[in-house]
Amino acid sequence: MNLPETAENKNPATKQDEDAKAALQTSMLRATVERAEQLVTGAWKLALISGELGFSVKVEGAVMPPEGFKPGDDIRLEYKKGDHPFFGPFIKAHLLNA
Q1: Do residues 72 and 61 touch, judged by C-beta distance below 8 A?
Q2: 61-79, pLDDT tens digit by residue?
Q3: What is the pLDDT of residue 15?
Q4: What is the pLDDT of residue 87?
Q5: In the predicted model, is pLDDT for residue 48 greater than 90?
Q6: Cα–Cα distance between 77 and 86 in angstroms, integer?
Q7: Which of 4, 5, 38, 70 has the fewest other C-beta atoms within 10 Å?
């Protein structure tokens, strides 16, 4: 017997559904690292170039890859839609040339 779909008997969202929904709510900024400096607080200060635009960002250590970044690395910074691409806060930092 099939029950009508209600809030009580709906199937819980799958991990893939949750990941897809999260991806729709984030934006990406791709850049190349010119300088990378880890601060005493554990955060990183990155000098980046994206296209012809150079800028600096501060990225919390918790969202950085364990090995950090070095000059010449191609990276992608992930941030929530609506947040500022140059000021963050950033959700995740990805190394693209690994």
Answers
A1: no
A2: 999 998 889 999 999 999 9
A3: 64
A4: 79
A5: yes
A6: 9
A7: 4
Lowest-confidence segment of 24-28, 53-57, 92-96 by average pLDDT: 24-28
| Those residues with Cβ within 8 angstroms of residue 85's Cβ, 6 or more apart along the chain or in another chain | 27, 29, 77, 79
Secondary structure of 1-64 in HEC code, one letter for each residue: CCCCCCCCCCCCCCHHHHHHHHHHCEEEEEEEEEEEEECCCCCEEEEEEECCEEEEEEECHHHC
Residue ranges of the domains in the chain? 27-95
Q: Which helix (H) or strand (E) holds 81?
A: strand 74-84
Q: Which fold has domain 27-95?
A: OB fold (Dihydrolipoamide Acetyltransferase, E2P) (2.40.50)
Q: How far apart are CA 36 and CA 57, in angstroms?
A: 10
Residues 6+ apart with CB under 8 A from 42: 60, 61, 62
Tokens 């800028």 identify what position? 55
Question: Which residues share a beta bridge with 71?
Answer: none
Q: Summarize the confidence of residues 37-42 as an average pLDDT.
A: 92
